[in-house]
Amino acid sequence: MRERLFSVVRPTARRASVAIDLVPVTPMRGGLATLLVPSMDPRAREPWILPWDAPRDVETLDDGAARVCRAALGGRSVPLEQVGAFGDGQRHPGEAEISITFAALVPLGGASVALEIEARWFDVDALPALAPRQQRIVAAALESLRARLDLASVAFRLLPPAFTLTELQAVYELLVGRALHKASFRRTLQAAGVVEPLAEWRSDGRGRPAQLFRRAPVDDRAIRRGVRFELL
Amino acid sequence: MRERLFSVVRPTARRASVAIDLVPVTPMRGGLATLLVPSMDPRAREPWILPWDAPRDVETLDDGAARVCRAALGGRSVPLEQVGAFGDGQRHPGEAEISITFAALVPLGGASVALEIEARWFDVDALPALAPRQQRIVAAALESLRARLDLASVAFRLLPPAFTLTELQAVYELLVGRALHKASFRRTLQAAGVVEPLAEWRSDGRGRPAQLFRRAPVDDRAIRRGVRFELL
DNA sequence: TCAATAGTGTCTGTTAGACATTATGGA
DNA sequence: TCCATAATGTCTAACAGACACTATTGA
User: Fold this and answer.
1) Are B3 and A71 inside 8 Å of each other by CB?
2) What whole-number distance in Å separates Cα of residue A161 and Cα of residue B57?
3) Which one of B16, B182, B183, B190 is CB 3.0 to 4.6 Å from B97, fit for a cystine?
4) CB A120 within 8 A of CB A47
5) How far apart are CA A192 and CA A75, in angstroms?
6) What is the side-by-side order of every strand in the sheet holding A163-164?
């Protein structure tokens, strides 16, 4: 069978149903958690779905994702990352043909803010049953966060403005999926100048209180000074 | 203004015009080149566009991209990478509302195969005028190749099965955007066992002939042996 | 012999990781 | 005082990069 030639036939864009799906992600209890909302669709078999909406006429996809995000998180705005587009060419009841997915990076502790809707955070290792495509979407979103070259920027966006180095290390470990060496981690952060100490300490009730840090304003320094740390 | 609540209102997917755009990429004359086709749309201002088509009813997006790819490359199949979805919410004449973009990794030398259509390879640093969105799409595709965590797999897919180490290094340098140290590069490849020497040599006419290599079947070895080389 | 490219040997500064130790809070 | 957590000091093996060198082809 012969493929269509571009120079002869001009293709016409096809209209397809499109949804913007959101995968909200936050560090929680030593792991990552994602936010699901109850499915209001009577045709759906699974009770939980990812927050979603249709893109609107006059907004960019990024703006649409931000809108879905605000609706799901009770008005809060958090950093978004596009994960990709999914579509298996089959029409499942109540499911768009094409789903464009964004991960929402909710900072540590952000899961505890009051949600205006009936939503729940689930540990990503203990999700309820999801529709097949939704399952793939969640997996892809986590994968894309973990595989990101610029790990530092993902890590910092999963943390509040002030954090302890232990928290930063824990987030890094979630992302790379293995334990890191504490002394090494701290030495390199300092050498690269990617964090700045604050004049504040925080105690968890037991043990020595930890100093709080923030991300340093400029972090090209890591490159300038030739730091080779694989995680920065 | 109040945001919509998921628990109250169930959104409905919107139908939008969707296109699959392809960014074919290949190493060429010391840089990267991309394939453009003549625009057959009389409404278009720019004479060249990226190869594209509409997704079909019963195919996945990946299959659709593979189809566009075969049509553009004269039947050849090459590895594809999804870059992302683009849509500014505005309707430009002859342009889909949403464009889902794939990069096609055409191995070194693949640009010289006969194309069945009126297509041309352009150095990515000397592209003709493109529509604004197409320009953004090309930039994003290159960015995503360069920023990939798994540089090795992108590099090998931009090379034929048998290649010289100088070629491999050149591709790496294109991807990371800087010169690499020859001795270091080779030492690390050997230590990690990511390439295997073949019993073949190739001469460019002058200088000592270079040995040909292929990618080693298993490359978890790099991890097993604890290789830390930033590029593997 | 020269030019050009492929490929290797040796050295050194830097760093990741191991390990041990000190510091500082609460009970 | 004991426990728990934070934070740091020292040592070592390993590696990236610098540099110089050898190897192998064609002209």
Assistant:
1) yes
2) 46
3) B16
4) no
5) 35
6) A163-164, A210-215, A195-202
Q: What is the pTM of this model?
A: 0.88
Fold entry, domain B151-220: Arc Repressor Mutant, subunit A (1.10.10)
The protein footprint on chain D, as nucleotides within 7 A of a CB, is 3-10, 15-20, 23-27
DSSP state of B22: E
**Residue type (1 letter), B182:** K
List beta partners, residue B91: none
Task: Inform me whether the pLDDT recorded for B6 exceeds 70.
Answer: no
Give the C-alpha separation, B45 to B23, whole Å: 20
H or E segment and range at residue B165: helix B165-176
pLDDT of B212 > 90? The answer is yes
What does the buried/exposed string (b/e) look like for B22-39 if buried means 16 or more CB atoms within 10 Å of the residue's CB?
Answer: bbbbbbbeeebbbbbbeb
In the CATH scheme, what is the code of domain B6-147? 3.90.79.10
CA–CA dist B168, B214 (Å, integer): 10
pLDDT of residue A215: 92
Interface membership of B2 toward A (CB under 8 Å): no
CA gap B23, B143 in Å, rounded: 12
- Lookup: tokens for B41: 């749309």
Cite the residue boundaries of each domain of chain A with CATH code 3.90.79.10. Answer: 6-147
3-state secondary structure of A197: strand
Residue A181 is encoded by which pair of tokens? 């060496």
Locate A20 and state its tokens.
């913007």
Residue type for position A109: G
CA distance A38 to B20: 32
Nucleotide C7: nearest residue by CA–C1'?
A: B183
Q: How far is the C-alpha of A223 from the C-alpha of B8, rounded, in Å? A: 49
CA–CA distance, B159 with B149 (Å, rounded to integer): 18
* pLDDT (tens digit per residue) in A6-56: 444 456 778 889 999 999 999 998 899 999 999 888 888 889 999 999 999
Which residue type is seen at A69? C
Tens of pLDDT, residue by residue, chain A (232 residues): 334 444 444 567 788 899 999 999 999 988 999 999 998 888 888 899 999 999 998 899 999 999 999 999 988 899 999 999 999 877 777 788 999 999 999 999 888 776 666 889 999 999 999 999 999 999 999 999 988 777 888 999 999 999 999 999 999 999 988 899 999 999 988 888 889 999 999 998 888 999 999 998 865 544 445 555 666 6
Check: CB of residue A45 under 8 Å from CB of residue A132. Answer: no
Window B176-205, strand D contacts by Cβ < 7 Å: 180-184, 187-188, 191, 201, 203, 205
